[in-house]
Amino acid sequence: MKHSILFFLTASVSITAIAHQPIMDMAPRWNNGYGVQTRVEHANSETTTWVEGVYTFKPSVRMTLKVPYVDGEMGNAILAVPLKRYTNEGSLTYNWSITPSVRMPTDGGNDWDAGLSVSYSSETPGLYQLYDAYTLGDKTGIDVNVGWSFPDGNGSSWFTLWDISAQDSDSGQRILTGPVLVYFKRNVVMRAEYKVPAYDHDDEWKGNFINFGIGIVY
Amino acid sequence: MFIKTLAIALLYTLLVPFSLAQNNSVDSQETATEITYEKAQNNNYIVSVHGIVCELCSYGVAKKIRKLSFINTSQANNGVKVDVENQRIFITLLDNTPLDKAALFKAIESGGYKPIEVIAGSQEEEQE
């Protein structure tokens, strides 16, 4: 799969902040690798800028930190430790992942939240797929990314994925779905996604979801 | 409620194989299979690597190989080219410098992949 992802359950405030962002899942998968990315998401008539970092101690142990900013104000940061079990077989690589996480009251509040996610992702030279289930506070959800990758043989690839995200919380239920476009060039990755509600019975959710991100790994 | 039930079921479904994978999988940290190789006349070698299918994911393993003292980084692609379509890495060694297969395999494993075999040859020779 030319493209990782992707996923772990991050104890995110909303389904849009869960782990399947490109850098955080797919790379870095090497010892002592690290990366940063920033992404801007627009949902519920609100724009949130995320600043995120990842450090890979070894392929099976990572640490991620995600900090949201809304109108210049820091929100609640999420610290997670994705624990991965990789298997490499010929033209297939896949991993199971368990990710404990904690959302810290960095917005000045007092509430801490713990989360847990379990995910599976696999990749071949042409196909990428990710399945993630998570729970955090009153929120429980699943997220699925499936799609194709198109490497050019010189260090860059396009990924065209389809995303389905479902979440249940005290405010209701919703299912969002839409396309995801990912581009890699050497160690730089860009991601854009657009999702619309396929099922919306959530009192706190209105409209579509748009996300743009760029990151780099070393 | 339907979504929550579905999510819990998926969590459970994913968790069971994860525990099995802990016991049964062959991961990137596993000791590489013993290899044989012949001395390359032009310092070019081809390394077969299981699981190396992603351009971005292989960035780290290429970087680690380039740090090896016997790699000729003055050559094309700084001496290391990853072929994700066929799960191979092409490397070029410095003149009169032997291939240290143990160091090479260790670098690949620390990059998150499973080295299998190394043979003399190059991408250009294959295309001929």
Which SSEs are present, and which pair or pack?
The complex is a heterodimer of chains A (218) and B (128).
Chain A: H1 22-26, E1 33-43, E2 46-58, E3 61-70, E4 73-74, E5 78-80, E6 83-89, E7 92-103, E8 113-123, E9 127-136, E10 139-151, E11 156-169, E12 172-185, E13 188-202, E14 209-217
Antiparallel strand pairs in A: 1-2, 1-14, 2-3, 3-4, 3-5, 5-7, 6-7, 7-8, 8-9, 9-10, 10-11, 11-12, 12-13, 13-14
Chain B: H1 2-24, E1 44-50, H2 59-66, E2 80-83, E3 88-92, H3 101-110, E4 114-120, H4 123-127
Antiparallel strand pairs in B: 1-3, 1-4, 2-3
Q: How would you classify the helix and strand content of chain A by structural class? A: mainly beta
- What characterizes the major β-sheet of chain B? 4 strands, antiparallel
What is the typical, i.e. mean, pLDDT of chain B? 78
Portion in helices of chain B? 25-40%
General description of the model:
The complex is a heterodimer of chains A (218) and B (128). Chain A is an all-beta fold and 218 residues long. Chain A has one domain: monomeric porin ompg (Porin, Beta Barrel), CATH 2.40.160. Chain A is built from one helix and 14 strands. Chain A has one helix spanning 22-26, and strands spanning 33-43, 46-58, 61-70, 73-74, 78-80, 83-89, 92-103, 113-123, 127-136, 139-151, 156-169, 172-185, 188-202, 209-217. In chain A, strands 1-2-3-5-7-8-9-10-11-12-13-14 form a twelve-stranded antiparallel β-barrel. Chain B is an alpha+beta fold. Chain B has a domain at 44-127: Alpha-Beta Plaits (2-Layer Sandwich). Chain B has four helices and four strands; from the N terminus they run αβαββαβα. Chain B has helices at 2-24, 59-66, 101-110, 123-127; strands at 44-50, 80-83, 88-92, 114-120. In chain B, strands 2-3-1-4 form a four-stranded antiparallel β-sheet, with helices on one face. In chain B, strand 2 and strand 3 (88-92) form a beta hairpin. In chain B, helix 2 (59-66) packs antiparallel against helix 3. Chain B starts with a helix and ends with a helix. Mean pLDDT of chain B is 78; it is low at 16-37. At the A-B interface, strand 6, strand 7, strand 8, strand 9 and strand 10 of A face helix 1 and helix 2 of B.
